[in-house]
């Protein structure tokens, strides 16, 4: 259900932010980034289409008046309203869905993905897609497709239970197609994956240019997540096939892609993005808002800040801390950050690991802190143990506060740190412990690294640079896109007789 905020202003550039599990319904690095853009551009108007869990999540950010509307699109609440298709519409949707499934499972049929997806998008807009996917016909189609001779998934012996599970996962993943897409301005997806679906629909239906920013690599994170998921391989093949082809379509159709680091750019080029459509834009912070943290704590302390989530790999951090404590018995580990709904079991697992290793007395989970600067000031060294990151705010904020850091070599971490901190391989407690011991044992080196880190932020990663860059993109993208479409239309008009032009929608 949409929530109205400020009034729309005639003539103001309009940006629709497309989010998933972040702004404005939760905290975290991507949400901070979104809020920075919105708060920093009072001359633009914003709408938000937010993919959420149940749709009951409250708005937790104070939204300014130039945010006109927030539309929550629940993936796991009540299904979208509508009724099953009938007659010819049912036949057409079934045929499109069969082509869609075939594209997910047959490498030779992947070209059918996009036309089928846009046919399904029109059905979602009519209210017929979700009811169709919740009916027996959709399950029967998947059963028939993945049992075709020659498909690799057939060798895994897919079952009826697999088909029911995979169909339900697809139905939920495709729900954002039912959201009314933006009709003008710029659609800005702040992650890949399902958040992009309303943007692709807006581009196909209304010609609204799509801007895509990936902080982490969405597809890589899905691969990591499904690697340990309990689903059988036939289910994973369907769902991961969907995310892979959706990523490729998003990269192809985006007018501009603005990764937060060069690492993401490599994934995007590998996924089919044209190099000329990619422009790296680093995250930024306001150095005045993150001044030097001041004196270090008296007791040697490692601090960590972020959301308690498996992708942050706190288990490796706790295991590394146990190794550090063998050498420095009085050291402490303080962890700051909230636990997202559904993440309670992971936090309990981490607490149990600390107790199992005999360090429950020295490891504290302190929850969200009113001022994140206090989390950085709490440590002699700030740690980051993630297995996936984009260009992490916690890292550049800690650097701005003048703290030495130990971080895992993922995403844009090495680009952010340069030589002002220590970078270690992910999932390697011994390497992380060795780096932490190296810095804990040398106060002079910590001080020099912290000073260099703050200078690096001031020179390269300021919030003003980020906001000015995106303001220019928002204003220029509709003009560039209209010019590009006019040139394409002129080329079609001047094409020699007999030259055909294809349609993505099929």
TrEMBL record:
GO MF annotations in UniProt:
glycosyltransferase activity
Extract the InterPro entries matched here.
Answer: DUF3492, PelF-like
Gene3D superfamilies to which the protein is assigned, alphabetical = Glycogen Phosphorylase B
Coiled-coil intervals in this record? Answer: none
Entry superkingdom = Bacteria
Pfam families membership: DUF3492 (PF11997), Glyco_trans_1_4 (PF13692)
The residues covered by the DUF3492 domain are 14-276
Q: Which PANTHER family match?
A: BLL3647 PROTEIN, GLYCOSYLTRANSFERASE
UniProt name for this protein: D-inositol 3-phosphate glycosyltransferase
- Please spell out the taxonomic lineage of the organism that makes this protein: Bacteria, Bacillati, Actinomycetota, Actinomycetes, Kitasatosporales
GN (gene name)? icsA
């Amino acid at each position: 259900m949409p929530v109205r905020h400020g009034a729309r202003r005639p003539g103001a550039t309009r940006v629709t932010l497309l989010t998933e599990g972040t702004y404005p319904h939760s905290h975290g690095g991507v949400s901070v980034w979104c809020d920075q853009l919105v708060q920093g551009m009072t001359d633009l108007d914003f709408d938000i289409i937010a993919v959420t869990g149940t749709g009951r999540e409250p708005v937790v950010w104070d939204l300014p008046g130039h945010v006109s509307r927030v539309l929550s699109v629940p993936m796991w609440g009540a299904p979208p309203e509508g009724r099953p298709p009938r007659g010819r519409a049912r036949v057409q949707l079934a045929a499109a869905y069969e082509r869609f499934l075939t594209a997910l499972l047959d490498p030779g049929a992947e070209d059918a993905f996009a036309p089928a997806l846009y046919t399904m998008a029109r059905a979602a807009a009519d209210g017929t897609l979700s009811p169709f996917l919740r009916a027996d016909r959709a399950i029967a189609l998947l059963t028939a497709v993945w049992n075709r001779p020659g498909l690799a998934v057939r060798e895994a012996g897919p079952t009826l239970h697999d088909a029911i599970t995979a169909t339900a996962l697809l139905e939920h993943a495709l729900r954002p197609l039912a959201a009314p897409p933006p009709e003008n301005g710029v659609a800005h997806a702040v992650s890949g994956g399902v958040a992009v679906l309303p943007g692709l629909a807006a581009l196909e239906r209304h010609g609204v240019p799509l801007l895509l920013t990936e902080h982490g690599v969405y597809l890589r994170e899905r691969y990591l997540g499904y690697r340990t998921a309990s689903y059988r391989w036939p289910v994973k093949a369907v769902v991961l096939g969907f995310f892979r082809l959706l990523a490729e379509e998003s990269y192809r159709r985006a007018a501009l892609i603005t990764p937060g680091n060069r690492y993401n750019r490599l994934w995007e080029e590998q996924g089919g993005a044209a190099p000329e459509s990619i422009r790296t834009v680093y995250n930024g912070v306001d150095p005045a808002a993150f001044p030097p943290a001041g004196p270090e704590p008296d007791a040697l302390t490692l601090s960590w800040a972020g959301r308690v989530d498996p992708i942050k790999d706190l288990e490796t951090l706790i295991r590394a801390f146990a190794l550090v404590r063998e050498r420095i018995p009085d050291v402490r580990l303080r962890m700051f950050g909230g636990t997202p709904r559904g993440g309670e079991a992971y936090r309990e697992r981490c607490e149990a690991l600390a107790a199992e290793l005999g360090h429950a007395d020295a490891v504290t989970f302190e929850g969200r802190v009113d001022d994140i600067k206090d989390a950085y000031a709490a440590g002699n060294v700030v740690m980051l143990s993630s297995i996936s990151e984009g260009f992490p705010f916690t890292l550049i904020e800690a650097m701005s506060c003048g703290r030495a850091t130990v971080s895992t070599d993922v995403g844009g971490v090495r680009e952010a740190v340069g030589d002002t901190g220590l970078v270690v391989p992910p999932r390697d407690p011994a390497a992380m412990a060795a780096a932490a011991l190296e810095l804990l044992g040398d106060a002079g080196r910590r001080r020099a690294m912290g000073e260099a880190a703050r200078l690096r932020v001031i020179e390269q990663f300021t919030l003003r640079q980020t906001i000015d860059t995106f303001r220019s993109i928002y204003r220029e993208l509709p003009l560039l896109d209209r010019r590009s479409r006019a040139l394409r239309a002129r080329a079609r008009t001047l094409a020699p007789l007999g030259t055909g032009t294809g349609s993505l929608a099929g």
